[in-house]
Amino acid sequence: MLRIERACWESGAHRLAGVDEAGRGPLAGPVVAAVAVFDRAFAEAEEHGMLEGLTDSKRLSESQRDNFCALLRQSPHVEVAVGLAETDEIDTWNILRATHLAMRRALARLTTRPDRILVDGRPVPDLPAPSDAIVGGDGKSLSIAAASVVAKVTRDSLMLKLDRLHPQYGFARHKGYGTRMHIRALLEHGPCPAHRHSFRPVREALDLRQRCELPD
Q1: What is the pLDDT of residues 35-87, one digit of tens each?
Q2: Which domains occur in the chain, in start order?
Protein backbone atom coordinates (compact mmCIF):
# COMPACT_ATOMS: atom_id res chain seq x y z
CA MET A 1 0.00 0.00 0.00
CA LEU A 2 3.01 2.35 0.21
CA ARG A 3 4.38 1.71 -3.28
CA ILE A 4 2.91 4.95 -4.67
CA GLU A 5 4.04 6.96 -1.65
CA ARG A 6 7.58 5.58 -1.81
CA ALA A 7 7.89 6.55 -5.47
CA CYS A 8 6.84 10.11 -4.59
CA TRP A 9 9.14 10.31 -1.57
CA GLU A 10 12.09 9.06 -3.59
CA SER A 11 11.41 11.69 -6.26
CA GLY A 12 11.77 14.42 -3.63
CA ALA A 13 8.17 14.99 -2.55
CA HIS A 14 8.69 14.81 1.21
CA ARG A 15 5.28 16.11 2.36
CA LEU A 16 2.72 13.94 0.58
CA ALA A 17 -1.06 14.37 0.95
CA GLY A 18 -3.70 11.75 0.16
CA VAL A 19 -7.19 13.05 -0.65
CA ASP A 20 -10.56 11.31 -0.94
CA GLU A 21 -14.24 12.08 -0.51
CA ALA A 22 -17.41 10.54 0.87
CA GLY A 23 -20.98 11.28 -0.08
CA ARG A 24 -21.12 11.96 -3.80
CA GLY A 25 -24.03 9.62 -4.42
CA PRO A 26 -26.54 10.24 -1.59
CA LEU A 27 -29.71 12.29 -1.98
CA ALA A 28 -29.07 14.30 1.19
CA GLY A 29 -26.32 15.77 3.32
CA PRO A 30 -22.98 17.36 2.47
CA VAL A 31 -20.16 15.88 0.44
CA VAL A 32 -17.11 15.49 2.68
CA ALA A 33 -13.46 15.46 1.61
CA ALA A 34 -10.52 14.52 3.81
CA VAL A 35 -6.77 14.78 3.47
CA ALA A 36 -4.15 12.69 5.27
CA VAL A 37 -0.42 13.42 5.46
CA PHE A 38 1.92 10.78 6.90
CA ASP A 39 5.33 11.11 8.45
CA ARG A 40 7.35 8.78 6.19
CA ALA A 41 9.18 6.99 9.01
CA PHE A 42 5.89 6.36 10.84
CA ALA A 43 4.14 5.06 7.73
CA GLU A 44 6.94 2.65 6.84
CA ALA A 45 7.25 1.44 10.44
CA GLU A 46 3.49 0.97 10.92
CA GLU A 47 2.43 -0.25 7.46
CA HIS A 48 2.28 -3.76 8.92
CA GLY A 49 1.65 -2.60 12.48
CA MET A 50 -1.06 -0.18 13.57
CA LEU A 51 -1.93 0.59 9.95
CA GLU A 52 -2.20 -3.06 8.94
CA GLY A 53 -5.49 -3.55 7.11
CA LEU A 54 -6.07 0.14 6.39
CA THR A 55 -7.71 0.28 2.97
CA ASP A 56 -10.68 1.69 1.06
CA SER A 57 -13.34 2.58 3.65
CA LYS A 58 -15.98 0.62 1.71
CA ARG A 59 -14.07 -2.59 2.45
CA LEU A 60 -14.01 -1.97 6.20
CA SER A 61 -16.67 -2.49 8.84
CA GLU A 62 -18.01 0.48 10.77
CA SER A 63 -15.98 -0.48 13.85
CA GLN A 64 -12.81 -0.85 11.77
CA ARG A 65 -13.36 2.57 10.22
CA ASP A 66 -13.94 4.14 13.62
CA ASN A 67 -10.80 2.54 15.05
CA PHE A 68 -8.60 3.64 12.14
CA CYS A 69 -10.07 7.13 12.17
CA ALA A 70 -9.33 7.52 15.90
CA LEU A 71 -5.79 6.22 15.40
CA LEU A 72 -5.13 8.63 12.54
CA ARG A 73 -6.56 11.64 14.32
CA GLN A 74 -4.66 10.94 17.53
CA SER A 75 -1.26 10.16 16.01
CA PRO A 76 1.31 12.98 16.16
CA HIS A 77 2.82 11.52 12.96
CA VAL A 78 -0.31 12.01 10.84
CA GLU A 79 -2.07 15.25 9.94
CA VAL A 80 -5.68 15.02 8.85
CA ALA A 81 -8.04 17.78 7.72
CA VAL A 82 -11.62 17.82 6.48
CA GLY A 83 -13.55 20.05 4.10
CA LEU A 84 -17.27 20.11 3.27
CA ALA A 85 -19.52 21.31 0.51
CA GLU A 86 -23.04 21.80 1.79
CA THR A 87 -26.29 20.86 0.09
CA ASP A 88 -26.96 24.33 -1.30
CA GLU A 89 -23.50 24.36 -2.88
CA ILE A 90 -24.11 20.94 -4.43
CA ASP A 91 -27.39 22.21 -5.90
CA THR A 92 -25.73 25.40 -7.15
CA TRP A 93 -22.52 24.02 -8.62
CA ASN A 94 -23.32 20.29 -9.25
CA ILE A 95 -21.88 17.40 -7.27
CA LEU A 96 -18.56 17.16 -9.15
CA ARG A 97 -17.65 20.81 -8.68
CA ALA A 98 -18.85 20.71 -5.07
CA THR A 99 -16.63 17.68 -4.42
CA HIS A 100 -13.62 19.51 -5.83
CA LEU A 101 -14.49 22.49 -3.63
CA ALA A 102 -14.60 20.27 -0.54
CA MET A 103 -11.19 18.82 -1.45
CA ARG A 104 -9.65 22.27 -1.83
CA ARG A 105 -11.13 23.30 1.51
CA ALA A 106 -9.64 20.25 3.22
CA LEU A 107 -6.20 20.94 1.75
CA ALA A 108 -6.42 24.59 2.80
CA ARG A 109 -6.74 23.47 6.43
CA LEU A 110 -3.34 21.74 6.47
CA THR A 111 -0.69 23.50 8.53
CA THR A 112 1.88 23.25 5.71
CA ARG A 113 1.43 23.09 1.94
CA PRO A 114 2.14 19.56 0.63
CA ASP A 115 4.82 18.88 -2.00
CA ARG A 116 2.52 16.52 -3.88
CA ILE A 117 -1.12 15.44 -3.69
CA LEU A 118 -2.52 11.98 -4.42
CA VAL A 119 -6.22 12.13 -5.32
CA ASP A 120 -8.57 9.19 -5.59
CA GLY A 121 -10.29 9.04 -8.97
CA ARG A 122 -10.07 11.63 -11.72
CA PRO A 123 -7.94 14.79 -11.89
CA VAL A 124 -9.03 17.74 -9.75
CA PRO A 125 -8.31 21.30 -10.96
CA ASP A 126 -6.83 24.18 -8.96
CA LEU A 127 -5.14 22.21 -6.20
CA PRO A 128 -2.41 23.96 -4.19
CA ALA A 129 0.38 21.58 -5.29
CA PRO A 130 1.18 19.16 -8.14
CA SER A 131 -1.15 16.18 -8.04
CA ASP A 132 -1.60 12.63 -9.31
CA ALA A 133 -5.09 11.24 -9.90
CA ILE A 134 -5.24 7.52 -9.18
CA VAL A 135 -8.33 5.53 -10.15
CA GLY A 136 -9.04 3.13 -7.29
CA GLY A 137 -6.44 4.97 -5.24
CA ASP A 138 -8.16 4.22 -1.95
CA GLY A 139 -7.18 0.59 -2.45
CA LYS A 140 -3.65 1.33 -3.72
CA SER A 141 -2.34 4.18 -1.58
CA LEU A 142 -2.16 4.20 2.22
CA SER A 143 -2.55 7.97 2.45
CA ILE A 144 -5.62 7.97 0.17
CA ALA A 145 -7.08 5.04 2.15
CA ALA A 146 -6.58 7.06 5.33
CA ALA A 147 -8.37 10.02 3.78
CA SER A 148 -11.16 7.70 2.64
CA VAL A 149 -11.73 6.46 6.19
CA VAL A 150 -11.66 9.93 7.76
CA ALA A 151 -14.08 11.29 5.15
CA LYS A 152 -16.51 8.38 5.60
CA VAL A 153 -16.49 8.49 9.41
CA THR A 154 -16.91 12.26 9.39
CA ARG A 155 -19.83 12.17 6.98
CA ASP A 156 -21.57 9.34 8.83
CA SER A 157 -21.32 11.40 12.03
CA LEU A 158 -22.90 14.39 10.26
CA MET A 159 -25.73 12.21 8.98
CA LEU A 160 -26.45 11.03 12.54
CA LYS A 161 -26.84 14.67 13.53
CA LEU A 162 -29.19 15.23 10.60
CA ASP A 163 -31.17 12.19 11.71
CA ARG A 164 -31.79 13.84 15.07
CA LEU A 165 -33.01 16.98 13.30
CA HIS A 166 -35.15 15.12 10.74
CA PRO A 167 -35.94 11.68 12.21
CA GLN A 168 -38.71 10.96 9.70
CA TYR A 169 -36.23 10.16 6.91
CA GLY A 170 -34.08 7.50 8.63
CA PHE A 171 -30.74 9.18 7.85
CA ALA A 172 -29.05 7.18 10.63
CA ARG A 173 -29.81 3.98 8.74
CA HIS A 174 -29.14 4.82 5.09
CA LYS A 175 -26.87 7.91 5.47
CA GLY A 176 -28.83 9.74 2.79
CA TYR A 177 -28.55 7.13 0.03
CA GLY A 178 -31.58 6.46 -2.14
CA THR A 179 -32.86 3.33 -0.44
CA ARG A 180 -36.46 2.20 -0.72
CA MET A 181 -37.05 3.41 2.83
CA HIS A 182 -35.65 6.84 1.98
CA ILE A 183 -37.71 7.21 -1.20
CA ARG A 184 -40.88 6.28 0.71
CA ALA A 185 -40.08 8.92 3.32
CA LEU A 186 -39.50 11.49 0.59
CA LEU A 187 -42.87 10.72 -0.94
CA GLU A 188 -44.59 10.87 2.44
CA HIS A 189 -42.91 13.95 3.90
CA GLY A 190 -41.33 15.76 0.97
CA PRO A 191 -37.70 16.93 1.01
CA CYS A 192 -36.14 18.77 3.95
CA PRO A 193 -33.36 21.41 3.79
CA ALA A 194 -30.75 18.64 3.94
CA HIS A 195 -31.92 17.13 0.62
CA ARG A 196 -30.21 17.76 -2.70
CA HIS A 197 -33.00 19.21 -4.80
CA SER A 198 -30.87 18.99 -7.96
CA PHE A 199 -30.83 15.18 -7.70
CA ARG A 200 -33.51 13.55 -9.84
CA PRO A 201 -35.14 11.26 -7.21
CA VAL A 202 -35.65 14.27 -4.92
CA ARG A 203 -37.12 16.37 -7.75
CA GLU A 204 -39.37 13.52 -8.84
CA ALA A 205 -40.64 12.92 -5.30
CA LEU A 206 -41.40 16.62 -4.91
CA ASP A 207 -43.14 16.76 -8.30
CA LEU A 208 -45.24 13.70 -7.49
CA ARG A 209 -46.30 15.16 -4.14
CA GLN A 210 -47.29 18.41 -5.83
CA ARG A 211 -49.30 16.61 -8.48
CA CYS A 212 -51.07 14.53 -5.84
CA GLU A 213 -51.35 17.49 -3.46
CA LEU A 214 -50.07 15.41 -0.58
CA PRO A 215 -49.88 17.28 2.76
CA ASP A 216 -46.60 17.54 4.72
Answers
A1: 999 999 999 999 999 999 999 999 999 999 999 999 999 999 999 999 999 99
A2: 3-165 (3.30.420.10), 167-212 (no CATH)
Instruction: Name the strands in the sheet holding 31-38, side by side, starting at the edge strand that comes first in the sequence.
Output: 78-85, 31-38, 16-22, 116-120, 131-134
- Nearest-angstrom CA–CA distance, 17 and 61: 24
- The partner residues of 33 in beta bridges, in order of sequence, read 21, 83
Instruction: Name residues whose C-beta falls within 8 Å of residue 166's C-beta, 6 or more positions apart in sequence.
Output: 192, 194
Find the distance separating the first CA and the last CA of the chain, reported in whole Å.
Answer: 50
Residue/partner pairs of 132-135 with CB below 8 Å, 24 or more apart: 132/4, 132/8, 134/4
Q: Cα–Cα distance between 189 and 204 in angstroms, integer? A: 13
What is the 3 state secondary structure string of the chain? CCHHHHHHHHCCCCCEEEEEEECCCCCECCEEEEEEEECHHHHHHHCCCCCCCCCCHHHCCHHHHHHHHHHHHHCCCEEEEEEEECHHHHHHHCHHHHHHHHHHHHHHCCCCCCCEEEEECCCCCCCCCCEEEECCHHHCCHHHHHHHHHHHHHHHHHHHHHHHHCHHHCHHHHCCCCCHHHHHHHHHHCCCCCECCCCHHHHHHHHHHHHHCCCC
